[in-house]
Specification:
two-stranded antiparallel ribbon; homotetramer; 7 strands; Thiol Ester Dehydrase, Chain A
């Protein structure tokens, strides 16, 4: 079973077309990633800052299926998969909760672990590698 | 008892100083306002768009007491109070959950109900006026 | 010659890792799109709201090449291309200005013109179709 | 003459009411602050991160006078003033450019210089103190 994260669409997520701004779908996916890491025991305030090792998003792609309005409930399912010793991808499915539930978007991100000074690739930290394998 | 809203600080809320960007405290307060309205039965997708009547924030002020880090849990308490037939204020208290709990910010917003075409003041819609009175 | 847009990286664009949050690269690209449309004589306040016809982003993808810091100067070049009577794509190249200049990201968005009520596909408005052809 | 900063309202600044989200006025003011510091020779990527000394916003207030739409041109004037050896305030005026020009908002921020570890107050760095005096 993939990890899932649920939240309500906020007014600040929306734009003048009345729906969630396209880039904010990606921010919502990142929230799901954060919650999944926290649930795996990883301390976010340490993980998401530059402490010598950083694991930035190296690629992302999104396919938008339905608009989301302020107040809508969204569920994000999240599935990590290893790509190499120092990289992994995450597949996200966003569902607008109903009834009936409706697919809202499919998103994919790739992440690469690097030394923040040299930019050289570096193996994933153990706790992260374990979370990726658990996906 | 004031309405309270709780959420986790997200990575997207933070800035390069490592803590929540000052303007994002206000966005978090607005989320609490939205949740309070939804709990009072107000449909957010209708309420927060221009349907002839709009109720923009006319003033805000914030006092920052403590930084918030990615992963921190924040509780926002929210207390509305009528100012006039067509305006109200909301007092928010943000608490970083511990233990020990610590005050993180105090925020106040003022809201004025206006006709979106003429910009003339207009009485609060009934459901909103009732929510304000309940504060 | 593609249209180019230049701006400075703001503090609000960054996150606790000290660099621009990945989703904000897409927001910067959208700014370039807006500037290109404005330069083509399209009125943005009309274009980017729901007036019966909307032209949402239907897909996007990004490849991140280099981090961007607060204060960095970024140039975005933007090239539209028609995909069908009712859709088009835009290719963006983000360059961190030096010297030396360095590629910062490559982004692609797809846009589909639809009737906002029925969600049926609709031909691009003339001014937009002309801008796409000019790319 | 106060320092002024001008920029176009972006789609990402707006919300589902069709106008700039109230918290984003503050982010636009911060951009003006950044530009003023850069014009005074301060390196932003160093200044706005935690390097032992941080200078967070300790208070802010805003009065909203007019809505801002996507594509609007906004000019921000910015005037700093010393409050103490370790703190200062900034007054901002936002003008929607016309013709005719119209006041859009008045904003004030307070900033306190502190040691990021001990949270004890610390004198303003020289370059910043000089910029504040020049206001």
């Amino acid at each position: 079973m993939p990890f899932t994260y649920q939240r309500t669409v906020h007014f600040a997520d929306t734009d003048a077309a009345g729906v969630v701004f396209f880039a904010n779908y990606l921010a919502i996916c990142h929230e799901a990633y954060e919650e999944a890491l926290a649930a795996a025991g990883i301390k976010l305030s340490e993980f998401f800052r530059d402490n010598g090792i950083v694991i930035p998003v190296s690629k992302c792609e999104a396919e938008y299926l339905r608009p989301l309005l302020c107040g809508d409930k969204v569920r994000v399912s999240i599935k990590p998969r290893a790509l190499a010793e120092n990289s992994f991808e995450i597949a996200y499915e966003l569902t607008r909760l109903g009834p009936p539930d409706k697919g809202a978007a499919k998103v994919r991100t790739e992440h690469v672990c690097i030394d923040s000074k040299t930019r050289a690739r570096s193996p994933l930290p153990d706790a992260l590698a374990q979370w990726v394998r658990s996906g």
